Amino acid sequence: MIELKYFGHSSFMTRIKGIEILFDPFISPNSLASAINVDEINPEYILITHGHEDHVADVERIAKNSSAMLVSNFEIITWFQEKGIKNVHPMNHGGSKAFDFGIVKYVNAIHSSTMPDGSSGGNPGGFVISSDQGNFYFAGDTALTYDMKLIADSFDIDFAVLPVGDNFTMDIKDAIKAADFVGTDKIIGMHYDTFPYIRINKSEAKQLAEKAGKKLFLPEIGESITL
Q: Does Amino-acid biosynthesis appear among the keywords (predicted)?
């Protein structure tokens, strides 16, 4: 079982073996997450899928407060090193790395990736996390892609954290297909409601997932769930 706490948009904290891993922190600029105190977030790792502002806005602040290790692609890691972040681990597509909480594999995503200052964020990606407590897929921002089937070939995925907001990423219908591709019936939705472009009908999304035999979780900001 793995605990996840939702901080809004695409930002989650997971706890594996007592170790906290934060994904894509965009919290302080998000008015929906105004109740979250960023300075109280103290992870051991920060995993970053790509370079857009709505995924990296609080990375530097949290990393410097916590001394967390940043894990992302080479270009993103280099960008943060230039900001004085020293505890880093660069990866790229197809690569895996064993950390003290489990194994991280950096996988393909179909999107774009530019850093807030306009410099290259490399190629966008997602992560497959495998551990003694379970395995999950954190997709990042992506379109539906047939490459997701390769994940099911190598991993028994317990749940998938998937974008459902449409417009910039998959919608719920494509997320359901993505869950099929990676071999899970549990979807944790992300990248929805933060901006007008990505507002969704939550009840309709849950009905579509249920009809397809999937369980869709849309946690409240600040809520923790265990799967």
A: no
